[in-house]
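To the wet lab folks,

You asked to see what we're planning to order before we commit. Fair enough. Below is the target structure as tokens, and below that is the sequence we designed to fit it. If anything looks off to you, flag it before the synthesis order goes out.
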């Protein structure tokens, strides 16, 4: 199935190898710079936010006197201090920079204190006194739906006649499922450093996945043209979607403060404030009715998704859309009707988080399939396999999604069979059943679940990228591209691609910081498409330089340009072999251009935004995980014992980085579904706003047996070096943990009832599900 590579036949030395992450050594040594490590310019001041303590209220006034009276406090900024638009340049235009005449959630930013030190700014912020008339708050998603409290209108996608299919189905089940949100818990919290430059120009260091958006937002708030603002980001200490839009708020606040005092201002949020201010993964609630036949095949599905968006739209529209697009996960939904309600609640505005609604789309269908299997007394894996998309010819074609995209290059049947075999699924399922017979308190469960994840931004226009490749006189190379580095290894992969395109050693290629003055209008580094987009743009830029050099050398040697090869730091023609460095020096002396740009846009994709039909994705990434868990039936505590993964990254550009992404994504998904719990109290305060009460997985939670294998085939679509995107898809492999826990609960109960277990499956919830 190896697609013929459109890339010229340069031997690939850098790509396909497990090179270390470009910053690994510096990060270990503490020598890698994050925003808060940038040497501060003399005169730098520090900001701290003033937060709303009520979930919904009319803002009558703000008393800043006590704060301003503290020595060392320079200013308190409020909405009135915003010279440009008082609304953020978010796409729905529904978020104020600072609360204007109302507050919409506990933690909303009302203003900013600027002071000589971080601690002083934070202390002063607590002295600012907003006067508030408290209003009733919407804190429950079902109440929001009842009250038609929406950030965006509901969306329905349907195929066939679900009601009719349910009426004639041999079996039906109905139920609800609640799935919690997730805090990003990036190790580096949100931070921005704004520096006024000469002639009303602004330099912003921002820990952001989307420098171009930050530039646009800052310019909008300052009332300036975009070209007055430059945004830079060398790296983030993690983003996970949490810095796709929400880094912009900090940059805007820091820039406004810097403009007010005309000095550099840094804003780094305290972790508790970061929890209270910024949005999280969207919690989802589901109501469903499903019909199926004796073999467990789905006939009809009616599904309602209640999406807890928080107080504004942010990215909720595309997140909720992606949840609809992934409600099928890997399965053919014959007659189906999905309605998605984008509910407005008085909480933080929820945002992108690894998977971007995909996990919330898939999990409900996986839970349903598990319950169908138990209802029929079948092995859940058998039921899953029977429902997979396939090219079988029957009365209906089973290879088209509910949104009208044909599923091509589907490797799930062989991939699942292979994983079931190597993980010994069937034997272990039997062994677990007999183990459970003899174990009174601890019970085990197992599940094997697939993932099919669509790659591309659903908004077609974002699927474009640019890059610059500079070759210097000594033959060393600098690449700049529109993507950002957040630990995922994007810069390493882009450097590998450029090294191979020019046939130079990886060590000759450097990637420089993301910078809006180099690549304009770049999309967010998101949707897992960082390497697909920026890697290709960089490859094209390098190819332009190589073409210049090839034409030049061909002229020297009197051969065709196609006969010139670039490999292992050498430029080879049938006549001569020269070092790359010598060719560069010669070319320069002959006034040949040694740098170029590159631009890429993803082919084939299109879709209709109103009906959500078409081909939103260039291709799918596939994978499957087999997970075994144990639960303590007296306490509800649980552990993941063994995980086997087989995942499809196409032809890997860097296997070590890809395996790291798969492991990290899986464990992060495990945290979402087991221990990470967001609890808002009746006043709308997020009470789990610190690591003391919000529990991400630790090294001790990583399963003792954790085996990750890569599927060996290349991407059948023409993607850079035959690779596939890897950032998000493995997150959803952790749904196997949830299904294994539900299996353990079912085995402990020994009945065929549907398991009523919501996520995260904390000890309390597992215990409740057992009784
Ligand atoms: N890996 C690390 N170490 N840190 C991160 O913040 N973000 C994830 C994923 N892997 C993330 C990560 C998310 S949400 C996405 S969309 C992709 O990386 C983005 O990068 P890519 O498109 O280059 O894969
Ligand atoms: N994925 C991730 N981020 C996004 C998307 C998407 O599909 N659309 C807009 N931002
Ligand atoms: Mo990732 S949620 O697309 O930043």
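Sequence we intend to order:
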């Amino acid at each position: 199935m190896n697609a013929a590579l459109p890339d010229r036949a340069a031997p690939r030395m850098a790509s396909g190898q497990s090179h270390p992450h470009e910053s690994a050594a510096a990060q270990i040594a503490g020598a890698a710079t994050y925003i808060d490590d940038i040497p501060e310019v003399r005169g730098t001041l520090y900001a701290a936010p003033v937060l709303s303590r009520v979930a919904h209220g009319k803002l009558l006034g703000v008393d800043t006197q006590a704060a301003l009276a503290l020595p060392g406090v320079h200013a308190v900024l409020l909405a009135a201090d915003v010279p440009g638009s008082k609304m953020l340049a978010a796409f729905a235009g529904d978020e104020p920079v600072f609360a204007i005449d109302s507050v919409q959630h506990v933690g909303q930013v009302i203003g900013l204190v600027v002071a000589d030190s971080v601690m002083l700014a934070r202390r002063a912020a607590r002295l600012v006194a907003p006067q508030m008339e408290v209003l009733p708050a919407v804190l429950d998603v079902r109440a929001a739906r009842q009250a038609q409290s929406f950030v965006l209108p509901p969306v329905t996608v349907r195929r066939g006649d679900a009601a009719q299919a349910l009426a004639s189905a041999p079996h039906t089940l109905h139920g609800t499922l609640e799935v919690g949100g997730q805090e990003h818990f990036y190790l580096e919290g949100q931070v921005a450093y704004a520096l006024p430059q000469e002639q009303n120009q602004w330099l912003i260091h921002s820990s952001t996945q989307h420098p171009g958006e930050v530039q646009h937002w800052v310019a909008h708030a300052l009332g300036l043209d975009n070209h007055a603002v430059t945004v830079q980001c060398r790296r983030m200490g993690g983003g996970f979607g949490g810095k796709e839009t929400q880094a912009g708020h900090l940059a805007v606040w820091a820039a406004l403060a810097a403009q007010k005092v005309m000095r550099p201002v840094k804003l780094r949020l305290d972790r508790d404030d970061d929890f209270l201010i910024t949005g999280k993964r969207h919690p989802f609630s589901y109501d469903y009715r499903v019909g199926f036949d004796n073999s467990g095949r789905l006939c009809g599905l009616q599904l309602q998704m209640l999406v807890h968006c928080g107080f504004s739209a942010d990215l909720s529209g595309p997140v909720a859309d992606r949840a609809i697009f992934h409600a099928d996960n890997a399965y053919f939904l014959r007659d189906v009707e999905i309605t998605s309600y984008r509910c407005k609640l008085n909480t933080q505005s929820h945002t992108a988080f690894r998977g971007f609604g995909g996990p919330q789309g898939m999990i409900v269908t996986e839970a349903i399939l598990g319950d169908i299997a138990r209802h029929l007394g079948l092995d859940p894996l058998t039921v899953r396999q029977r429902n997979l998309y396939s090219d079988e010819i029957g009365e209906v074609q089973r290879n088209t999604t509910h949104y009208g995209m044909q599923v091509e290059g589907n490797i799930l049947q062989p991939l699942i069979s292979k994983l079931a075999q190597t993980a010994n699924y069937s034997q272990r399922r039997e062994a677990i059943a007999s183990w459970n017979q003899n174990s009174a308190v601890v019970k085990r469960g197992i599940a094997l679940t697939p993932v099919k994840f669509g790659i591309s931004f659903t908004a077609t226009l974002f699927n474009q990228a640019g890059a610059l490749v500079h070759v210097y006189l000594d033959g060393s190379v600098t690449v700049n591209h529109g993507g950002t580095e957040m630990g995922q290894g994007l810069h390493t992969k882009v450097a590998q691609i450029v090294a191979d395109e020019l046939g130079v050693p990886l060590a000759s290629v450097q990637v420089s910081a993301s910078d809006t003055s180099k690549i304009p209008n770049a999309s967010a580094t998101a949707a897992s498409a960082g390497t697909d987009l920026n890697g290709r743009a960089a490859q094209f830029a390098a190819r332009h330089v190589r073409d210049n050099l090839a034409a030049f050398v061909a002229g020297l040697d009197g051969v065709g340009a196609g006969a010139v090869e670039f490999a292992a730091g050498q430029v080879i023609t049938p006549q001569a072999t020269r070092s790359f460095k010598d060719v560069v020096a010669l070319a320069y002396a002959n006034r040949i251009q040694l740098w170029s740009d590159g631009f890429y846009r993803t082919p084939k994709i299109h879709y209709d935004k109103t009906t959500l039909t078409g081909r939103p994705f260039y291709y799918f990434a596939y994978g499957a995980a087999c997970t075994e868990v144990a639960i303590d039936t007296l306490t509800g505590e649980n552990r993941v014992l063994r995980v086997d993964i087989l995942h499809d990254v196409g032809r890997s550009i860097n296997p070590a980085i890809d395996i790291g992404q798969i492991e990290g994504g899986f464990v992060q998904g495990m945290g979402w579904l087991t221990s990470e719990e967001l609890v808002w109290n009746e006043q709308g305060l997020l009470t789990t706003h610190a690591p003391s009460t919000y529990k991400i997985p630790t090294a001790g939670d990583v399963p003792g047996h954790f085996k990750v294998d890569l599927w060996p085939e290349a991407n059948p679509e023409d993607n850079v070096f035959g690779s596939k995107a890897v950032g998000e898809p493995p997150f959803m492999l952790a749904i196997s943990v949830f299904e294994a826990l539900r299996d353990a609960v079912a085995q402990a109960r020994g009945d065929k009832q549907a398991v009523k277990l919501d996520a995260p499956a904390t000890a309390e919830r597992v215990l409740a599900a057992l009784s």
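Structural context that might help your review: The radius of gyration is 27 Å. The longest strand covers residues 442-455.

Thanks,
Computational group
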